Amino acid sequence: MNAPLPSHAMPAVEPRPVPGAMLEALRARFGERCSTAPAVREQHGRDESPFPVTPPEVVVFCESIEDVSAVLRLADAHAVPVIAYGTGSSLEGHLLAVQGGVSVDVSRMTKIVQLHPEDLTVTVQAGVTREQLNREIRDSGLFFPIDPGANASLGGMAATRASGTNAVRYGTMRENVLGLTVVTATGEVIRTGTRATKSSAGYDLTRLMVGSEGTLGVICEVTLKLHPLPEAVSAAICQFPDVNSAVRATIQMIQMGVPIARCELLDANAVRVVSAHSQLGLREAPMLLMEFHGSPASVQEQAETVQALTADCGGQDFQWATTPEERTRLWTARHKAYFAGMAANPGCRSVTTDTCVPISRLAEIIDVSVLDADASGLPYYIVGHVGDGNFHLAYLVKDGDAAERDIAEALSHRMVQRAIALGGTCTGEHGIGLHKIGFLVEEAGEGAVQMMRTLKRALDPKNILNPGKIFTL
Amino acid sequence: MNAPLPSHAMPAVEPRPVPGAMLEALRARFGERCSTAPAVREQHGRDESPFPVTPPEVVVFCESIEDVSAVLRLADAHAVPVIAYGTGSSLEGHLLAVQGGVSVDVSRMTKIVQLHPEDLTVTVQAGVTREQLNREIRDSGLFFPIDPGANASLGGMAATRASGTNAVRYGTMRENVLGLTVVTATGEVIRTGTRATKSSAGYDLTRLMVGSEGTLGVICEVTLKLHPLPEAVSAAICQFPDVNSAVRATIQMIQMGVPIARCELLDANAVRVVSAHSQLGLREAPMLLMEFHGSPASVQEQAETVQALTADCGGQDFQWATTPEERTRLWTARHKAYFAGMAANPGCRSVTTDTCVPISRLAEIIDVSVLDADASGLPYYIVGHVGDGNFHLAYLVKDGDAAERDIAEALSHRMVQRAIALGGTCTGEHGIGLHKIGFLVEEAGEGAVQMMRTLKRALDPKNILNPGKIFTL
Fold it and tell me: What ipTM does the predicted assembly reach?
């Protein structure tokens, strides 16, 4: 592969200033909801990526579709960039205002628009977070399974095609978004999809927007599939002598078609930091954290199958988390892995990979990547939604240490090349953002990326929607 | 709704003749695989829709991606329409050469390119049919569940976003296509997706192509998810005093989260024709035909739940199909419903609806539509993948009888309007083709259809890829 190393320096692009007339128009319409205060701008110019803060010129707090449309109409008239902002939890530089412009903050758009428990669907405003949604629908007997580490907004989760620990059973945002309300580059409001579970009605605009990272439209409302709360839930942990054994057990579960709901790997490093952060008292050894959903009999059966299978692969200390409290404690600890990693390495930032490979190649890519990481001398840990073939190797680098950053980026690049060679992808759930622009070309090829650019130019001819992300134009 | 009645007359468009130079170039490259014989052209100018035969000017039998690319390069140079052809089983006029041009027949592209049983994936050429695929992978312990009525090609199934009887459990082509090899309007070959089960790498070109009905590219290879053959399978039929009771039982199953694999409704008319056609000896009453997949214990449990639930809804004559032979006989009969309907009404063609609604509204839309159909005096029958909220009302009209055709089209239009009003779609699995161009505007709105047109113009500026389908340009 001869593609250049993906740039992890900031791209050198001329900012596109917000003209005075536009700023005045925004202030006239939005009053105090339009801010140029440095603290507000800085907050909107960062995410969880290791890139430097790159603030927008203005932040507008939108409260309705009409608000978003008004901003876009002005941005279109003045050819000014617009970046949608939910909770700021993206990982690849998605939110950074590399060409300046306006941050459209949708975090106040937190209405549950329509809950249809009898159809297992809900429509929410883009700023509703996954935790808020599950709180608000608790009494319906339903839940929304997609759970990225952060308590992200559902608009942001749609925009990055997010997933999380439940994807092996319930799919990702790709499978769980039924429709969207989107504001286009000219401020027009369109609706995609319906509440029907399937449709062959024309181009799949819903899935074109899902994962487009704010570059084709601003997502204002999301219609989602919900799922019945399982009658029975049971979770278990099992520790292994090495990562390879844990991964082999996972591969066998998937190949056998066990309908496992969650199957998470933590390597010994991750177990150490997570256990310390959340006081779990776990032995420092690789671990699978699993959950089974279904009827009581089906859960029992799955659990027995998996217990036998992990034992065959050298699993030890298989333990049930029988009470809901215990389960919640384990999963909360898992969700905090990223922050636990940060806490255990003060002054560090994380360069996190997100490769996803066909399940049979998972052990192989992890083994080689661990050797590579060990040789680098950088601290690292692994967590992974291994039931999907997706895992994250987080390299911890001292903030501002360019040499360490270079080492981590080179490790990351080699892992991506391995994943692509094995039929996989450079990103299972985090997206391309700024960070993986080069990786996308390596993965998809220049022809496919050129098709993406053609679509972008067609829907956003002035390149005002989150410009500079996914690809260079 | 003020949109005009969708035209079921053929659109009046000037054909775009294949210039002599292009025909010569095709003959030079393809020899006998390039045909202008009237019988061959006629066969490629029809599908299962009630539109008159509209043949292409030339048919080219392609055997490789390079063949397809060569045709597209010529078509691009001469601005001539190209229509991809698999098995000719589409239902909405997709294949009709309304602007003339070249039919690219991929039915000889029948190679299984790569089977990866350990990853539950397979890559096939576009002309492989669903039955061929399942035959060829039989020894792997895996199967491909998507089963439209016809033995369609997998390229065609991807192009129309097809589904079938298993979608309630396994999803549609939208969920089961991992990647594609596509020839673009200029003859370029691009690959979309990977073999990883999930990805956030840029725009979802795979799902943009799935359901695009040959208007954005010609699909040459399809990478599919496979599923482990269930350890246990059990099927059952249950008859009901009326359609409403059968539908209520279905709604309850879905709302309870029973992981049923197939749940098909046949109304009394469908039971009559299917039973006669396949000698099943069934009583003429509405019926659910169901199948359960899983471990023996899980299948048993699902079946008990469903048996109790159907009894509560007035179900009678609940019968198990215990042997594989019995099951196959029932499902084969179901798949032949369309042909059984034709056979029972000689000299008729079928105007078939394909609405899909949120599950809770299914009984309501069927009830009203049955009253409407009864009042029309036309013969009809209903079959439906009711677990998805999707059903087909087939009105049988005498071939060439314009008055009956008008009545059927008006019935169909009223049903679509009902489905849209209830949050549903005009087509669950058949696509738009020629027939539903007006319905798509009613469903998606002018703004969304305009976005589709913009995408089409961007990827196919000369409008050579299956022109005149999905929307008017």
Answer: 0.96
